[in-house]
C-alpha cells in the first residue's frame, strides 16, 4: 500500500522526538531562563507553540502556559469537538485560540468576523493555508501551489455538468451492481464506507477521465489512497520545525510514488490527448469531453507536462472523493436509523425520476432529499472548523472589531458548533430531516425553486452554513457533489431496502477538528423487486 512511505515506526519516532523536544523547550523556558544555547537550539523544535504566547489578549480554550498548553494540545486530539463548542459558547461572535501540537489555531466564532474573512483577499490566504496544511511543497508539488488554472475549469464545467448526468447515472448503476452483491431474498451486509468511496471514485472519474479507466481497480485505489497518504505525510512534516522540513519532507513524502503510478495509469491517455491537440487543436472528432481534455486545453508550460497533468487530476480527486462519500455514509446511516423518512424520500424519487429521468434539473427537484442530506450533515458534521486561512500580510490581518492577527497565524471559522446554534437552527440537537424543506416550502409553493436553492439547499452558502466555505474560494465542486449524493441515495432507495446492522446508528469518530462516520461499520441491504434498471 502507498502509505508504506510513512511507516508506523517513522511516525512514532518523529512524533516522540518532536514532543520530547517541545516539552524540553517549554521546561527550559520556564525554569532555566539562563540556559540560552540549549534553549535557543530547542526553540527550533517548538516554535509553533511557543512563539504565539504574545497573543494573551485573545482568550485560550484550554491551558495557555508554556508547558501546560501541551496538555491541552494532546487533549484536543480526543476532545476537539467539545473544545470548539466551549469556545463558541463563550465567544459566539468573537475570536478565541486553541493550542494544537503543531500550532495555535485561531477560531472566529461568527457574525461580523466571518464576514471580514469572507471579504478578505490574499492577505488572509486560502491557498497559503492549504499549502501549509497539506504541505504541497513536499507532498504534491506539480506546480499546483503556483498555478490554479483548474479552478476556472471547475467553476464552469462542474457547475454546468448537465451533459454528464447520464454518464454519472450509468456509472452509479454499474458501480452499485459491481459493489453490492445483494439479492431480494435476504439482507446482505455491506462495508458502507469502502463501498461508497469506490462508488464515488467511479462516478467522479467517469467525468474526470472517462471509461474504461474510471473502472480500473488500481487507478481507483491510487485516487482513493492519495488523500490519506498526503495528509499523513503533511501532518508528520508539520510536526517538525520549518528548518527540518528539507530533511523530513522528502523522507515522508509520497510524491515520487504517486508520480510514478499516475504516469503509469494516466500517462497513455494524457499523451494521446496532447498529441491530438498538437495535430488538431482543441476541436477534433470524437474528442472525449472530460477533465483530461479540459486540462490539456488550458495547461501551458510545465503545467502541460504529463506528470503535472496527472497529479492535478489526483489532486482534484483528493477534493472530491472523501468529502462526498463521508456525507453519503452519514445520510444512509441516518436513513437506516430513522426509517420513517424512507417512504417519503422514495416516493419523491419515484415521482421525479419516472417523469423526468436522472438529469441535472430532475435531481435538483428532490427537495425533501436535499433537506434530509443537509440536516444529516448539519447534525453530524465533517469538521469543527471551515475556511482555514493563513495571515500573509506582513502587517497582519485586522478584523472589524480592531483585533489584529499577525503574519503567519492560522485562522478558521467555527462550523459544527455554529451549525448547532439554536439562534440559527431551532431545537438544534433534534434531527429534523425536513427542516430545510419546510423552510423552503413557501417559495416552492410559489414556483420559486431558485429561491429554495439559494436560501435553503444543501449546496447553498451563508454565514451560518459554512460547510462549503464562503466568498471567492467557496467550494466549486458543491453542486456536482450535491448531485452525486442526491442521485445515488435516490437510486439506492428505489432499488434497495436498507437497515442498520446493529440496534443503533454507528457512532461518528471525532479526531482533533475532524469528524468522520464509522469507517468500519456495515449497513444491511436487500434488493427490492422490479427496479433493476434504475429507471423506475
Ligand atoms: C461534500 C463534498 C465537499 C465538501 C464538504 C467540500 C468543502 C470544501 C470547502 C470547505 C472548501 C474551502 C472553501 C473555503 O475555505 O472558503 C472547498 C474548496 C474546494 N473544493 Fe470542495 N468540497 C466538497 C466536494 C468537492 C468536489 C466534489 C470537488 C471537485 C470535484 C471539490 C473541489 C474543491 C476545490 C478545487 C476547492 C478549492 C477552491 C479554491 O481554491 O478557490 N470539492 N471545498
From TrEMBL:
A GO molecular function held by the record: monooxygenase activity
This protein's UniProt keywords: Heme, Iron, Metal-binding, Monooxygenase, Oxidoreductase
Binding site for heme: 475
InterPro entries (alphabetical): Cyt_P450 (IPR001128), Cyt_P450_CS (IPR017972), Cyt_P450_E_grp-IV (IPR002403), Cyt_P450_sf (IPR036396)
Cleaved signal peptide residues: none
Reported cofactor(s): heme
Pfam families recorded: p450
Coiled-coil residues: none
Family to which this protein belongs: Belongs to the cytochrome P450 family.
Protein name (Swiss-Prot/TrEMBL): Cytochrome P450
Species name: Macrolepiota fuliginosa MF-IS2
Amino acid at each position: 500500500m502507498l502509505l508504506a512511505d510513512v511507516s508506523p515506526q517513522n511516525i512514532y519516532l518523529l512524533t516522540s522526538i518532536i514532543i520530547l523536544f517541545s516539552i524540553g523547550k517549554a521546561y527550559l523556558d520556564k525554569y532555566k531562563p539562563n540556559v540560552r544555547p540549549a534553549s535557543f537550539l530547542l526553540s527550533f523544535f517548538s516554535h509553533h507553540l511557543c512563539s504565539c504566547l504574545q497573543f494573551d489578549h485573545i482568550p485560550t480554550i484550554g491551558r495557555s502556559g508554556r508547558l501546560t498548553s501541551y496538555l491541552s494540545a494532546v487533549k484536543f486530539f480526543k476532545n476537539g469537538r467539545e473544545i470548539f463548542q466551549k469556545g463558541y459558547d463563550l465567544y459566539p461572535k468573537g475570536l478565541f485560540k486553541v493550542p494544537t501540537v503543531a500550532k495555535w489555531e485561531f477560531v472566529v466564532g461568527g457574525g461580523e468576523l466571518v464576514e471580514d474573512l469572507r471579504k478578505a483577499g490574499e492577505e488572509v490566504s486560502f491557498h497559503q493555508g492549504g499549502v501549509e496544511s497539506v504541505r504541497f511543497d513536499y507532498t504534491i508539488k506539480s506546480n499546483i501551489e503556483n498555478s490554479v488554472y483548474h479552478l476556472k475549469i471547475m467553476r464552469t464545467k462542474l457547475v454546468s455538468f448537465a451533459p454528464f448526468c447520464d454518464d454519472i447515472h450509468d456509472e452509479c448503476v454499474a458501480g452499485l451492481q459491481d459493489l453490492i452483491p445483494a439479492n431480494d431474498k435476504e439482507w446482505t451486509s455491506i462495508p458502507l464506507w469502502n463501498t461508497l468511496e469506490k462508488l464515488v471514485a467511479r462516478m467522479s472519474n467517469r467525468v474526470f477521465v472517462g471509461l474504461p479507466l474510471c473502472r480500473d481497480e488500481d487507478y481507483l485505489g491510487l485516487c482513493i489512497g492519495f488523500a490519506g497518504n498526503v495528509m499523513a505525510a503533511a501532518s508528520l512534516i508539520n510536526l517538525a520545525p520549518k528548518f527540518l522540513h528539507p530533511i523530513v519532507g522528502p523522507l515522508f513524502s509520497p510524491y515520487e510514488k504517486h508520480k510514478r503510478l499516475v504516469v503509469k495509469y494516466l500517462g497513455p491517455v494524457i499523451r494521446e490527448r496532447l498529441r491530438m491537440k498538437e495535430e488538431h487543436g482543441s476541436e477534433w472528432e470524437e474528442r472525449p469531453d472530460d477533465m483530461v481534455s479540459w486540462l490539456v486545453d488550458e495547461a501551458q508550460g510545465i503545467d502541460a507536462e504529463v506528470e503535472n497533468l496527472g497529479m492535478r487530476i489526483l489532486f482534484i480527486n483528493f477534493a472530491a472523493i472523501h468529502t462526498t462519500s463521508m456525507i453519503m455514509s452519514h445520510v444512509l446511516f441516518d436513513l437506516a436509523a430513522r426509517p420513517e423518512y424512507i417512504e417519503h424520500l422514495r416516493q419523491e424519487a419515484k415521482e421525479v425520476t419516472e417523469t423526468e429521468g436522472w438529469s441535472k434539473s430532475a435531481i435538483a427537484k428532490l427537495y425533501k432529499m436535499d433537506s434530509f442530506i443537509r440536516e444529516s450533515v448539519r447534525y453530524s458534521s465533517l469538521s469543527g472548523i471551515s475556511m482555514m486561512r493563513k495571515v500573509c500580510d506582513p502587517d497582519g490581518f485586522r478584523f472589524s472589531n480592531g483585533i489584529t492577527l499577525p503574519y503567519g497565524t492560522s485562522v478558521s471559522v467555527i462550523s459544527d458548533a455554529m451549525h448547532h446554534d439554536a439562534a440559527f437552527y431551532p431545537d438544534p440537537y433534534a434531527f429534523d430531516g425536513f427542516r430545510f424543506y419546510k423552510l423552503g416550502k413557501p417559495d416552492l409553493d410559489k414556483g420559486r425553486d431558485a429561491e429554495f436553492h439559494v436560501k435553503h439547499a444543501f449546496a447553498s452558502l451563508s454565514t451560518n452554513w459554512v460547510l462549503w466555505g464562503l466568498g471567492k474560494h467557496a467550494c466549486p465542486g458543491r453542486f456536482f457533489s450535491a448531485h452525486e449524493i442526491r442521485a445515488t441515495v435516490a437510486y439506492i432507495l428505489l432499488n434497495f431496502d436498507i437497515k442498520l446492522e446493529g440496534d443503533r446508528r454507528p457512532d461518528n469518530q471525532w479526531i482533533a477538528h475532524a469528524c468522520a462516520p464509522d469507517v468500519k461499520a456495515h449497513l444491511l441491504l436487500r434488493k427490492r423487486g422490479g427496479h433493476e434498471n434504475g429507471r423506475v
